[in-house]
């Protein structure tokens, strides 16, 4: 092996936490001892890997699986780990199953949400100035410019300022398409 | 106040475990569940090592668990044979202060 076990250390925080939980009350652990435990843990991983891999290779598999690990513990004389590991495996499998189901549920909910939003957006699209009708008053203004002679001048000002929208509504009802190609103006003359 | 021993809360990062595993050239692929199991096994391993070593610490009437206690434990148990090389440089008896020049990273 070109790599030394010391080069791949496990996070100190986790090692420290486990040591703290395991140590009997009243006993301290020296810094060097903590480091040694951390290194021992790395060596343990390598040893367990090697044993597990042997089981995989025996079964002509290229992938180490969970059962290989459990069998390896027996070989390493850590049989007492077998039960906790089996529980751990079951818990992991359940966790994965729940995650998968939660993800699928989220996906479905999102699809419905997107569809609803799309529907609402389609409706709002036409009423761009939010005045309740689906006509753009810009188009109305454009038409007004063309018919200078006929324009209503109730405000006393330039009709081009009608672009504000609200005045236009008072003046006329507009029918026709929102694209603005043809706009009929009927005036309600007061 | 009784201190609640926390189980299952200290997990090792699966990616790091996988990295260590793959320093072994013979290792090909690793199933996703494997680093999770190794993490749990590590927890049990460290627990076991500490518990056994703390017995040595008590027998020596020491308040602090040191590397020499670990070394003794490793030599006492056959299952810890694979750790013998790791503690080869550790003296058999140590003072209990933190500044121990005997442990070096460069081996």
Automatic annotation (TrEMBL), chain B:
Record GO biological process: negative regulation of transcription by RNA polymerase II
Compartment list: Nucleus
Entry keyword set: DNA-binding, Nucleus, Phosphoprotein, Repressor, Transcription, Transcription regulation
InterPro entries listed in its UniProt record: CBFA_NFYB_domain, Histone-fold, Transcr_DNA_Rep_Reg
GO molecular function, one term: core promoter sequence-specific DNA binding
Sequence ranges assigned to domain Transcription factor CBF/NF-Y/archaeal histone in this UniProt record: 10-73
GO cellular component assignments: negative cofactor 2 complex
Gene3D superfamilies: Histone, subunit A
Pfam hit, one: CBFD_NFYB_HMF
Alphabetical list of SUPFAM superfamilies matching this protein: Histone-fold (SSF47113)
Quaternary structure note: Heterodimer with DR1. Binds BTAF1.
Family listed: Belongs to the NC2 alpha/DRAP1 family.
Protein name (record): Dr1-associated corepressor
Organism: Magallana gigas
